[in-house]
UniProtKB/TrEMBL annotation:
Keywords (A to Z) from UniProt: Membrane, Transferase, Transmembrane, Transmembrane helix
Domain Rhodanese per the UniProt entry, residue ranges: 33-74
InterPro entries: Rhodanese-like_dom, Rossmann-like_a/b/a_fold
Annotated EC: 2.8.1.13
PROSITE patterns, sorted: RHODANESE_3
GO process terms (BP): tRNA wobble position uridine thiolation
Lineage, highest ranks first: unclassified sequences, metagenomes, ecological metagenomes
Residues annotated as transmembrane: 6-24
A molecular function GO annotation: tRNA-uridine 2-sulfurtransferase activity
Claim: Iron is one of the keywords in the record: no
Entry protein name: tRNA-specific 2-thiouridylase MnmA
Class of the enzyme per the UniProt entry, highest EC level: transferase
Length: 100
């Protein structure tokens, strides 16, 4: 049984993805591109598409927070995110750097 609104969500995702790819294709006139790689789906797919289109990529992971004593803790640390991003970069054979 389909979930209400699923078709609309899928179509919207398709349009936004199509627009993103069109924008990438028409706006990047360089052969070497620095891609921000968080390890999430969006940046990983963007890196994959750019790599597949023949761009020479460099992946950067940016540390956006540091755990603090007394702060709200999370099970997902920046080190975990960086490890996932590094695995994606390794799989795509892209140089990977962490910046803080």
């Amino acid at each position: 049984m389909p979930i209400a609104g699923y078709e609309i969500i899928t179509f919207t995702f398709f349009l936004s993805t199509f627009y993103f790819l069109l924008l990438l294709r028409n706006s990047i006139n360089m052969e070497r591109v620095v891609v921000g790689l968080s390890g999430g789906v969006d940046s990983s797919v963007a890196a994959y598409i750019l790599k597949r289109q023949g761009y020479d990529l460099i992946a950067l992971f940016m540390v956006n927070w540091h755990e603090r004593v007394g702060a709200v803790t999370s099970r997902c640390t920046w080190e975990d995110d960086a490890l996932i991003a590094e695995m994606v970069a390794k799989k795509l054979d892209i140089p990977f750097h962490i910046v803080d």
